[in-house]
Amino acid sequence: MDKTVPDLAAAVAGIEDGMVLMVGGFGGSGAPIELIHALIDRFKATGSPKNLTVVNNNAGNGRIGIAAMIDAGMVAKMVCSFPRSADPRAFTEKYLAGEIGLELVPQGTLAERIRAGGAGIPAFYTPASFGTDVAKGKPVAEFDGKSYVQERWLKADAALIKAELADTMGNLTYRKAARNFSPLMAAAAKLTIVQATKIVAPGEIDPEQVVTPGIFVNRVVEVANASQEEALMRDGVAYA
Amino acid sequence: MDKTVPDLAAAVAGIEDGMVLMVGGFGGSGAPIELIHALIDRFKATGSPKNLTVVNNNAGNGRIGIAAMIDAGMVAKMVCSFPRSADPRAFTEKYLAGEIGLELVPQGTLAERIRAGGAGIPAFYTPASFGTDVAKGKPVAEFDGKSYVQERWLKADAALIKAELADTMGNLTYRKAARNFSPLMAAAAKLTIVQATKIVAPGEIDPEQVVTPGIFVNRVVEVANASQEEALMRDGVAYA
Amino acid sequence: MSTKLSNAQIAWRAAQDIADGAYVNLGIGFPEMVAKFQPPGRQAIFHTENGVLNFGEAPPSGEEDWDLINAGKKAITLKPGAAFFHHADSFGMVRGGHLDVAILGTYEVAENGDLANWSTGPKGVPAVGGAMDLVHGAKRVAVVTDHVTKDGKPKLVKRCTLPLTGVGCVTRVYSSLAVIDIEDGRFVLREKLASMRVEELQAVTGAELVLPDVIGDLVAPEVS
Amino acid sequence: MSTKLSNAQIAWRAAQDIADGAYVNLGIGFPEMVAKFQPPGRQAIFHTENGVLNFGEAPPSGEEDWDLINAGKKAITLKPGAAFFHHADSFGMVRGGHLDVAILGTYEVAENGDLANWSTGPKGVPAVGGAMDLVHGAKRVAVVTDHVTKDGKPKLVKRCTLPLTGVGCVTRVYSSLAVIDIEDGRFVLREKLASMRVEELQAVTGAELVLPDVIGDLVAPEVS
Which residues cross the membrane (chains C, D) (predicted)? Predict the structure, then answer.
């Protein structure tokens, strides 16, 4: 029942070529930088995993995190709502060169599709994007006189998640707005991998305050002093 | 911005004949007994509200709460998953006499329909009830080779909710398993009315621990020593 | 030796198949007994539809907290590492395939995996609760049941005659006489009471039993 | 007197229509200025897509907490009575009709309420963010905008020519020259600069202005 793993390399084991990978975070808040960099380390050492489809609200910033995965050549496609950032060149260059795919999804639809994936809802209807280019080719339907677009669930082979507290059974809390997509992704992935600022014993997180119950979590690794994207950017770090 | 109201009568004002009323709770846990009884008091004094459609997982127990509303003749129809209880006679007698309607909804579908109502999702697909009598007449569709039933959102004119803490802006916490349907119903109703064990100032509930944000809440009334259904049953209380 | 397993023994047998760390939902009533028989060294995490993970036994009488109940409205306690959540999240766990096993009681179960456990017909007040959700999504959906009805009719049948709870959803049956898997629309006999011949078992089963090379003995200690 | 309102003045004007206790989402950039101009005695509650209600101003430089940001990825602070929630709950608030008003910037807005504010065409990297969700569900969807483009072309048009963000979603336009409601597929002029004649305004507007009996003066103090 103990879901802790000894180190970052063990945490990201089993993520293989061609997988769909969800990565928590909205910009830098909630970005699991150490897990991403551990995956890049493995790629540099072994050439794998590559050809990944990465799901995140954005498409990386600077030369770290998801941007560094793109720079390293690990990512075949991004699924996101806003592939722009303070320094979006990693994605932009490859996108304009036709070297990386993009599925653009409105932010609320992205969240709801991931939530549906975790909750066993194969499809739902949303007003968002009706009548726009983004809805082209999607089924539409009218309910109570208003038009909606049918959207499908989004699931992943694995998810990388940054939490604040984790207990050894995988119950999680988040820190402030770093929560964002992470509880949804934890539920939508087959293999949910968590870096937590602190790991505690079962019972040390009040059951009322658990945001992600351990049922959604497979592995937990402690990263006490996690990097924040903004600080890395300020310091000009390039990981790839 | 202060959503507190002085008493229970003020809290339940505006619930009128023919409305759809969601009532939080699962059995006795989370049942807003005092709000329900305040509504019964108004009915006894004025003859209104009547002809209500009540949404709750169950259909009342004994002679209190929802059962007392049914006894009093205020309820035209129940929408629930399990209209049975330790003492279900209020509903059972009227149902077998053809004096009350029933829309039977699987429990997970009931929760998801209410969630959809609050979240602006007019319809979704679920595997629950496919191929059963409960799905008769509903649209079905196949996704990835599996069959699903299309379900519609469920909204209400008003919701009666029992919370543990409320701040004056309507942010709520719940107590243990009394959470159940309440956060969903708070979001799915036009007029959300809350009885809280304690009302505190804004800022006294940690923003991390808010379960229902105040945006979903219209009125809050303090009921410090709320009744628990099981205790009323044991004492043989009949309210209607 | 008894000619059939007691309910407690059926529950004991079902409990032997639950791995350490498994997430489990037990139906109201008889299936709840499964929790009592977790093998030493294994700890399952129990889920209840009304929003609790990792609950424990009933509290002593008089110490109930009626805000802390299970789907059967009975008072429960918490184990360390418990969590509360709302009903939509709870059934997201169910439909989303996050439970390792759901164990339910039944009126009938058919060789095609159909389950009928919510209604005995149009009389009275219909009540479905969470059963129609629980039969979808859990990685394994098992039933615990007497092999026959009180008047001796098979509960394992060719096709259900009662209103269905779910279509093609059951993967294993723990009965008072046998352990039977449902594979490719057939009953596959895995274990039977050693005292019973296959022909005797077939005679009280409503559809043909597929007989693999190895059929184990169904044995359970005296438990209650 | 200036011949048009500054962005700050447009934001000031939009802020006057926000009631005490209103739940409000402000688009990234220019619309964010609306928060600065809440009238005395009124307090709106601001929502940001990434899961915060009731946030306040930016912290002083050097005191940023980068786990506490808004949808524009800028550091924010909290007011008493704030709440955190995940992205699905956040957009449930948006689509579910819980926001009283959403105020967005725009490239074009059409008399039928269509909005085009996310893409200037097929070049470059497309990015939509939360705009396509925000234009649905809020009780009022307003835009704040210069009345014309930098090269003098109308931004209020008969039909949008740029890729749409949403169909028939905008209810009010606060421009640098006027306040215009969209009703029954028409631009209805509510307020205009006193210094401007209706004919002058019509000349820089891409669709016909409906003129009600009462047209107010658009006035805003010198703010920045």
Answer: none
Tens digit of each residue's pLDDT (9 = 90 or more) over A147-157 = 999 999 999 99
- Amino acid at the residue C171: T
Helix (H, G, I), strand (E, B) or coil at D145: strand
Residue D21 lies in a domain: yes
Residue C127 sits at the chain A interface (C-beta within 8 Å): no
pLDDT band at residue C1 using 50, 70 and 90 as cut-offs: very low
Catalytic residue set of C: 49
Share of chain D above pLDDT 70, in %: 99
Print the domain residue range for D159: 7-217
CB contact under 8 A, C96 and A167: no
Chains adjacent to A (≥3 CB pairs closer than 8 angstroms) = B, C, D
pTM of the model: 0.98
Nearest residue on chain B to A178, alpha-carbon basis: B208
Residue D1 has pLDDT above 50, yes or no: no
Note the pLDDT tens digit of each residue in C88-122. 999 999 999 999 999 999 999 999 999 999 998 88
Q: Is residue D1 part of a domain?
A: no
Bridge partners of B20, per DSSP, are B53
The domains of chain B, with CATH numbers, are 8-122+155-234 (3.40.1080.10)
Max CA pair span of chain C:
53
ipTM of model: 0.98
Q: A115, A121, A169, A218: which to substitute to probe chain C, counting the most C Cβ within 10 Å? A: A169
Q: Do B30 and C67 touch (CB under 8 A)?
A: yes
The separation between CA B238 and the C-alpha centre of its own chain, rounded to angstroms, equals 20
Chain B residues touching residue D80 (CB < 8 angstroms): 201-203
- b/e map D46-66, b = 16+ CB within 10 Å: bbbbbbbbbbeeeeeeeebbb
> Is residue D222 in a domain?
no
